[in-house]
Amino acid sequence: MLFLLMGGMDAYALTPQQKRAKAKEVQMRKREAAKRKAEKKRAAKAKAAKKKRLKEGKPLLYVYTYDLRSGEKLAATHITAQNIHARPNKKPIINKATDAKRARVSKGLPAATYWIHAARLGYFPSDTLYFDHRKDEDSVAISLYPETRLTFTVTDSLTSRPVVANLIVRRPDQSRVLQTTSDSVHSLIAVLLDDRVPYYTIEATAVDYFPFFDTIVKPEEFRGVIMQPREIKSFVLHNIYFATGKTRILASSEPALNELYRYLNSRPKQRIRIVGHTDNIGSDRSNQVLSEGRCREVKKAMVDRGIRASRIEIEGRGEKDPILPNISEQNRQLNRRVEIVLLKESSL
């Protein structure tokens, strides 16, 4: 009988796995209870704070900031706010950044009319907003527009060296976005553009150089300011590309063709000769024909853009005038070029 009783007690004993599961369940219940207690405490604290604010006449104001493109909340946005009737030199009543968790600023303020401003690195500052703060919990949403940073160089068209030039960037209404002078060391210029503006105009002037004018529609495609020296007889048309062994101009040559067109369009009396050069790969005859054909294609591209054909001559030189010996691919690449020779201006 005693043996049966002890066996029955063993039948109801918990296994180690069951003991661990039970202990885990007890621990989870304790955590949930602690969480409920903490939430209850926070709610009581918020209720007390709300009661105190109402008693003091300071309803709560929330300020949120958003990315205008993506709609995402922005942390680390500096918010400033002040009563519109405060003294001009008085410290703002709100002067801090939105937090990282909720991307907001919260503060109990007396019911009144306030101005609010937001600023964040990488975004255009907001306009100054005016807000009537009356309810117990008011909120203000401010959207910021991302900046587009345009960085470019100012260089000599022949040597690609930096040029000291006076630069002005304008909006369509002629208001100035940038007015500065490039230096002779690295000539790197940066300007913040708003891509909500349809286009910008840029002009550059420098001693002994022709003025530079251009329109910036797509900042990512702007190649920089390339200054043309006044006292030149010829220059190489850089970044002009042809299909291998053919006269067809590749699409990647459009910026170079546009640059040549702007040059001719801004000087309606200037006549030019387009001179084509090749390397020494292939026969003399084939290289001569190739260089002439490429010159014709460049001339056609200018005529198609509106330049009179009578202003343009062509000359194929084949492999006759290399810049460097054709002993390496790098040298041959430099020898394959299109040169623009400036001729006497026409009287028309």
How does this model look, in words?
With 348 residues, the chain is an alpha+beta fold. It has four domains: 2-45; 57-144, Immunoglobulins (Immunoglobulin-like, Sandwich); 147-231, Sandwich (Immunoglobulin-like); 233-348, OmpA-like domain (60s Ribosomal Protein L30, Chain: A, 2-Layer Sandwich). Helices cover 26% and strands 30% of the residues. The strands form five sheets. It has a four-stranded antiparallel sheet with strand order 3-2-5-6, with no helix packed on it. The longest helix is centred in the N-terminal third of the chain and has 41 residues, at 16-56.
Determine the number of helices (DSSP H or I, runs of at least 4 residues): 5
Number of domains: 4
Number of strands: 18
**Which CATH C-level class of the largest domain is it?**
Alpha Beta
CATH architecture of the largest domain: 2-Layer Sandwich
Question: Which strand order do you get reading across the main beta sheet?
Answer: 3-2-5-6
Mean pLDDT: 86
Primary descriptors:
348 residues; Immunoglobulin-like; 4-stranded antiparallel beta sheet
Task: Summarize, please.
The chain is α+β, with helices and mostly antiparallel strands and 348 residues long. Helices cover 26% and strands 30% of the residues. The chain folds into 4 domains: 2-45; 57-144, Sandwich (Immunoglobulin-like), CATH 2.60.40.10; 147-231, Immunoglobulin-like; 233-348, 2-Layer Sandwich (60s Ribosomal Protein L30, Chain: A).
Secondary-structure topology with pairs:
Blueprint lengths: L1 H10 L4 H41 L3 E8 L10 E6 L10 E4 L6 E5 L3 E8 L9 E5 L3 E8 L3 E9 L9 E5 L5 E6 L6 E6 L6 E6 L6 E5 L8 E3 L6 E3 L17 H12 L5 E7 L6 H21 L7 E5 L12 H7 L1 E7 L5
Parallel strand pairs: 1-7, 8-14, 16-17
Antiparallel strand pairs: 1-4, 2-3, 2-5, 5-6, 8-11, 9-10, 9-12, 12-13, 15-18, 16-18
